[in-house]
Amino acid sequence: xxxxxxxxxxxxxxxxxxxxxxxxxxxxxxxxxxxxxxxxxxxxxxxxxxxxxxxxxxxxxxxxxxxxxxxxxxxxxxxxxxxxxxxxxxxxxxxx
Length: 96
Description:
Blueprint: E1 2-7, E2 12-17, H1 28-43, H2 62-69, H3 73-92
Antiparallel strand pairs: 1-2
């Protein structure tokens, strides 16, 4: 749904969001949750010049733990529920 990439030459970091987020049928909290998720990677030292806090970006539930620490765990839960219920069905509309 999103990605974060570091440009060593320019020393900049860019968060990219899935183009489907332009569709008004995607709840805004899904977009917020995706941005927050990518910012946690940045906070942990991924896709930036900072030292990584962890070897792997998701192992051990570090994203969920960080979100919980920042009182954003409900956003993550709500997002997972919506994605599980709706995302594949939504994408099928765009096949072929």
